[in-house]
Design goal:
The protein is of the alpha/beta class. The chain is about 45% helix and about 25% strand. The chain has ten helices and seven strands. It has a seven-stranded mixed beta sheet, with helices on both faces. α7 packs across α9 and α9 (about 220-235) packs antiparallel against α10. The longest helix has 20 residues, at about 20-40. The chain is globular and about 55 Å long. It binds S-adenosylmethionine. S-adenosylmethionine (SAM) binds next to α2 and α4.
Length: about 280
């Protein structure tokens, strides 16, 4: 995948990168299996996200609208879903896929730091894997809170790179790689700070759910992440190019031998805006 990686600096400005198509493909590669799992249990998703038919829902940083379309199915024709993204290319593709199937779903270009909506417009505001890439996640969260009605729900999901694991954890090179992985996103530890931020901003009934993502095989997302880690570790002088290449090779060897293991957590934080 070359030297273009799905990190915060590129996610923050997809249209300005040398190859925006990479990010569209990346989302399709990584969201397919996740959406399948969600579709297997719509009621579980509805309850976990405080959704009801007829609700107005905002999906901030919606990308290609994988979640927006799913949210639109759940709230139904009496509801309204807005997918917002700052990438025109993402939104054009999201719109093309939608093809007017759910007229209650619309896509809007905008910046998560300055949401173009009146106060209290939505019942639920949702952001999946967005805040960790932003310049000012606190501001974006405050904006989500502002546009949510009193008594409504705010949900933010981000990666937690504080406790990653991999098979080779005990080698000195692997330990240095894990250190780089912790720092590779602008806010790789944001997920842990979210419950505190929710409370500071006045959200109530704050709940945290941890999902451990464990990979037993190399896939395009894990490969991109670790190629990126190697590039960054070499650039920082943490490892030599030969050590980096050997590390990638050893991951593939582990895969061939059936003992591949890479894992990190994703935290879903949910809170309720104080009733008026
Ligand atoms: C990692 S992707 C997640 C996409 C989607 N939430 C999903 O899970 O499929 C991050 C998305 O946030 C968008 N984005 C980045 N910075 C943004 C900003 N300041 N305002 C709005 N969207 C932004 C990117 O264009 C990209 O589509």
């Amino acid at each position: 995948m070359g030297t273009l990686h799905a990190w915060h600096d590129t996610w923050a400005n997809v249209d300005g990168t040398s190859e925006p198509g990479f990010f569209l493909r990346f989302l399709d590669m990584t969201r397919g299996a996740l959406m399948q799992a969600l579709r297997a249990d719509p009621e579980g998703f509805r309850q976990a996200h405080g959704l009801e038919q007829g609700y107005r829902v905002l999906d901030v940083g919606c990308g290609l609208g994988h979640y927006s379309r799913w949210l639109a199915e759940i709230v139904g024709a009496e509801g309204r879903v807005v997918g917002l993204d700052n990438s025109r290319l993402m939104l054009e593709e999201a719109q093309r896929r939608e093809e007017g199937r759910s007229p209650w779903l619309e896509f809007v270009q905008g910046d998560a730091h300055w949401l173009p909506f009146e106060d209290a417009t939505f019942d639920v505001s949702y952001a999946n894997l967005l805040l960790e890439h932003l310049e000012d996640p606190r501001r974006a969260l405050a904006e989500m809170l502002r546009v949510t009605r009193p008594g409504g729900t705010v949900i933010v999901i981000d990666n937690d790179f504080e406790n990653p694991e991999m098979m080779q954890t005990l080698t000195p090179v692997a330990l240095r790689m894990l250190q780089v992985l912790r720092r590779i996103f602008r806010h790789g530890s944001l997920a842990r700070q979210l419950p505190g931020l929710f409370s500071e901003l006045g959200l109530e009934e704050v709940r945290v759910e941890e999902v451990r993502n464990a990979f037993k095989k190399m896939n395009p997302m894990v490969e991109d992440l670790f190629l990126g880690v190697v590039d960054r570790a070499v650039a920082e002088g943490q490892v030599t190019p030969a050590e980096g290449a050997a590390h990638m090779a050893s991951m593939l060897e582990h895969e061939a031998e059936g003992r591949f293991h890479v894992a990190w957590s994703t935290l879903k934080v949910r809170g309720r805006k104080k009733a008026a």
